[in-house]
Amino acid sequence: MPALWIAHVxxxxxxxxxxxxxxxxxxxxxxxxxxxxxxxxxxxxxxRERPRNxxxxxxxxxxxxxxxxxxxxxxxxxxxxxxxxxxxxxxxIED
Length: 95
Prior knowledge:
- Helices cover 38% and strands 32% of the residues.
- It is an alpha+beta fold.
- It has one domain: Alpha-Beta Plaits.
- The chain has a 4-stranded antiparallel β-sheet.
- The longest helix has 17 residues, at 14-30.
- 22% of the residues are buried.
């Protein structure tokens, strides 16, 4: 079943996070991920607000997790770790 990769992010270092973004996009695409939303307008109804929200669709939870664990994504993530506060989840969806 398809899955969504959902990230809620507060960027604390724009320059370093820019390096993450430059590398993360190709890593996600290489695993079949397709962005549905990246930093667009949102309305926070409950919980902690994060100014950047990203949603990508993958063919399966396993594909999304494989992407996260890939060398390419981990390289990208090395730039985001000290440049942001974030939550990331993968959730299976009905298609």
